Amino acid sequence: MAVNIGSLFSVLGLEYLSLWKILTIFFALLNLKQLPFVWHLRIINGLLRYMPWTSGPRLDARSIGPSALFRPLILTSRATPLEIDYNLHKSNSTYFADFDIGRLHLMMCLCRAGIVKTGHDLWERDGHKGPKRLRIMMGGVHINFRKEIKPAEAYEIWTRVLGWDRKWIYTVTHFVKKGAVKPKGWLLQPWRNSDRRQTQQASETNTSNGDPGSKGIEEEKITGVHPAIFATGIAKYVAKRGRLTIPPELILQNSGLLPPKPKDHETPPVSETPAMPVEGDALPTAGAAKQDITSDDAEEAIDKALNDKKAVGHGGGDDDDWTWDRMERERLKGTKIAEAWNVTEQLNEVFEGNEVVLGRYWDIP
Questions:
Q1: Taking the model in full, what pTM does it have?
Q2: Alpha helices, DSSP H only, in 77-190?
């Protein structure tokens, strides 16, 4: 039976649209997150989602406490046609846009209240002078690619806190195959835990009936790099109030994410940002920016964490289990990785400027 397209459009109320307009709308919907200003809308969504008047207690990490600090936050997305390059996979440049959204959701979920409180406390301390709000600025980002994301393939963006030092807070993001990894629990979405239990019971039933294929990848013992990872990235943020650098520990403490601190632990002081060096001054190297963390201390902390049964993992854990020592072990482990990445700061010295070049060529402005 032949289908009359005109009659179909009339029934759907689309008789005023031409075929080209229909195709244009369809193409736009397929590439929704690549359209102009949609990235900004994704940012606004990440900002508003965790505001007090929109989030409620379900999205407030303060209701969880220290056990939420190193837990990942998951977003889902898909490789759209406009993200595909000539190799027919997601272009490497498009990862950074998703990277931005994942980090924003994490920082807003964990630290929004602490950022507001810290800025207000400093403003009160200074007699209502100076800026009342803190600025959170990125200092660097790096991504390693492992596997391609194919056209229209769905993926998840797992982002969590890696560690922090006196100046920077570091986050790590994993692009993971959607559905390949099942979380053991959901801290801010408890209703998902019942779905998890039902899925686990069904999997155990199928396994007992002799169906080995029902065992999920999350139940397998993974050694080395997880096979579900497409790419992994690291980024660092700094909090500023004017030229004043705010230690991340202060913000995390005001966010209710740190356990009780021992009396002999000294909180890193709020320090002024050093002035730019004048001509003739020695430029600081990456090794000099390692703060108070030494490689020997970090190695010892990692070895102790691996041998300690209460070392940080991705399983459950009550706030009572999150002592300061346990938190510090995880922080040192992440900071050790970040310090190795910070060595790339020395690449700034590779640029010379006044040298013979190959040429200057035109590109689309």
A1: 0.76
A2: 95-125
